[in-house]
Specification:
single chain; 445 residues; alpha/beta; Rossmann fold; TIM Barrel; six-stranded parallel β-sheet
Length: 445
C-alpha cells in the first residue's frame, strides 16, 4: 500500500532514432514488468511512452487486425557517423512537446527509469534523457534494458544517465531505490521464480492493442548471432496454467484479442510446457489470435503441436531457418533441411494459412555470399510458405561478434551506430541492386 512517504518513479520507453521502425508487436515488456513489481511494493509509478501510437494528441492510426501499426515519424538530422548514408533518418514516436507535457503532468519524480533496446538506438535514449533533465534536472535517471546490458560503459558515457543497471533489474532495483530515493523495502517475491511476478503493467498504456507474453526467460540454445544467454543467463519457465490464466485475464478484463509470444524457445520441452499451454488456450474457446515474432524452433514441431496451434488461434507463425544452404551448423543447430520441410508440411496440413507462415532468412552475415540467399528463398517457397528476410545486426558479446568486427567496413567496436542492420555493416559494400533483387524474389508470388 502506498503512503505519503512512497517514492514517485517515472518509467519511460524512449524514442527510436533510425532509418526505419514499425510496431511489430514491440512493447517494453521488461520495463512494464518492473513497473508492476514496484507498484506491488508501495511505489507510485507513472509511465511515459515515447512510442505511444495511441497518444491522446496524436492522429490515431487505429487498430490493425493483429494489433500492429506505424509509429509517428519525424525526419531529423542523422548522427555525424551516419551523415553520408543516403537514406532519411527519423525520430519515431511522439512529438517532443507532448513528452514535455506528459512529464510535467506526471509530476516531479524521485527517480526515473529508462529502458533501452537496440544498441544503435542509443541516440534516441540520449534525447529522451535530455528531455527529462531539462524539466527535472535534479531527478536521478537510471538506464536499463538490452543496450544498457550489452554496452554498459558506452551507455553511461553517451546517454546522460546517472547510472546504468545491466541485467535483469529485479535484482538491483530495490537497492537503487534506497540509494536514490531513500525508500527501503524488501522484495516480497522470489526474482528467480517467474510465476511469482505480477502481471506486467500494460494497464498504464493509453491503449492495449496487444499483449506480449513471456512464458519462459532464457534460451537453451547458444546461437552464434544471438545474445539471449547474455541478457538472461538463467532459464526460467512459468507453469502452463499460470500463462493461460494471464491470457484470460487480459482478454476478460481489457478485451485484448492479440497476443505476441516473446519467448526465445517457446517449443523447448514442449511436452511439459507448450503442449499443456496450447491445450489450455484451445479449451478456453475464446476469440484470440497469437503471433510469434520471435522465431519458433522448427525441430520440436509435430503434427500434434501443429494441430494445437490451429485450435488455439495462432495467426502469425515465424520459423527460425536462418539459412538453407547447408552451412547453418556454423550459426546454430536448431534445424536441418529435412526438419524444416517436415515442419512446414505439418503446419500446412494442420490448416495454418500459408500466407501467415514465414521463415526467417538471415541476410548480411560475415562472409556470406548473398547470392546464396536466393537459393534459400527458393527452398522456402518450395515448401509453400513465405521467406522473410532478416537483416543481420552485429550484437556485442555474441560468438559472432569478433567475426562481424573483422568483416565490417565500419569500426563496430568503436561506434554502435554502425551495427544498424539498415547499413548491412558486414558486407564489403552496400549492394543496393542485389538487395532489391532479394526483396523482389522473396515477395514474388
Amino acid at each position: 500500500m502506498m503512503t505519503v512517504d512512497s517514492p514517485h518513479i517515472i518509467c519511460i520507453n524512449p524514442w527510436i532514432h533510425d532509418f526505419a521502425a514499425y510496431d511489430f508487436w514491440a512493447k517494453p515488456l521488461g520495463l512494464l514488468s518492473l513497473a508492476a513489481v514496484l507498484r506491488t511494493h508501495g511505489v507510485r509509478v507513472s509511465y511515459v511512452d515515447c512510442l505511444d501510437r495511441f497518444h491522446p494528441k496524436a492522429d490515431h492510426p487505429g487498430y490493425s487486425a493483429d494489433g500492429r501499426g506505424p509509429y509517428r515519424k519525424t525526419p531529423i538530422p542523422a548522427p555525424k557517423p551516419l551523415a553520408d548514408v543516403p537514406a532519411r533518418f527519423s525520430r519515431y514516436g511522439i512529438d517532443p512537446r507532448w513528452l514535455a507535457a506528459d512529464l510535467a503532468s506526471a509530476g516531479r519524480p524521485d527517480l526515473v527509469l529508462v529502458t533501452s533496446l537496440m544498441t544503435y538506438w542509443y541516440t534516441g535514449v540520449a534525447e529522451t534523457i535530455a528531455a527529462v533533465k531539462r524539466l527535472y534536472p535534479d531527478a536521478p535517471v537510471l538506464l536499463g534494458g538490452i543496450y544498457a546490458t550489452l554496452l554498459p560503459e558506452h551507455a553511461l558515457a553517451h546517454t546522460g544517465a546517472d547510472e546504468v543497471l545491466p541485467g535483469p533489474a529485479e535484482a538491483t532495483i530495490f537497492r537503487a531505490i534506497e540509494k536514490y530515493a531513500g525508500f527501503s523495502c524488501r522484495p516480497d517475491f522470489d526474482p528467480a521464480d517467474i510465476d511469482a511476478f505480477p502481471y506486467p503493467a500494460f494497464d498504464l498504456q493509453s491503449e492495449i492493442p496487444y499483449v506480449p507474453l513471456l512464458t519462459a526467460r532464457g534460451c537453451p540454445n547458444r546461437c552464434a548471432y544471438c545474445a539471449s544467454h547474455v541478457l538472461q543467463p538463467r532459464r526460467m519457465r512459468c507453469l502452463p496454467e499460470n500463462a493461460a490464466a494471464e491470457i484470460a485475464y487480459w482478454h476478460d478484463r481489457f478485451g485484448v484479442r492479440n497476443f505476441a509470444f516473446y519467448d526465445d524457445a517457446l517449443l523447448a520441452d514442449a511436452e511439459d510446457h507448450a503442449i499443456p499451454l496450447l491445450e489450455r488456450i484451445a479449451a478456453m474457446k475464446k476469440d484470440l489470435s497469437f503471433h510469434t515474432p520471435n522465431a519458433l524452433h522448427v525441430r520440436p514441431i509435430t503434427s500434434k503441436i501443429a494441430d494445437l496451434m490451429v485450435k488455439a488461434g495462432f495467426a502469425t507463425l515465424r520459423l527460425g531457418l536462418e539459412t538453407a544452404d547447408g552451412k547453418n551448423r556454423e550459426l546454430d543447430d536448431k534445424v536441418r533441411h529435412e526438419e524444416f520441410v517436415r515442419a512446414a508440411r505439418l503446419l500446412l496440413e494442420a490448416g495454418v494459412d500459408e500466407k501467415r507462415i514465414g521463415a526467417y532468412l538471415l541476410v548480411g552475415l560475415p562472409g556470406q555470399d548473398l547470392s546464396s540467399v536466393e537459393a534459400s528463398i527458393d527452398t522456402v517457397k518450395k515448401c509453400g510458405i513465405r521467406p522473410v528476410l532478416a537483416y543481420y545486426t552485429p550484437i556485442p558479446r555474441t560468438r559472432m561478434w569478433a567475426a562481424a568486427c573483422r568483416a565490417s567496413r565500419y569500426d563496430l567496436a568503436a561506434e554502435p551506430l554502425f551495427t544498424n542492420n539498415s547499413l548491412m555493416p558486414c558486407m564489403p559494400e552496400y549492394d543496393r541492386p542485389l538487395i532489391n533483387r532479394l526483396k523482389q524474389r522473396a515477395s514474388a508470388a
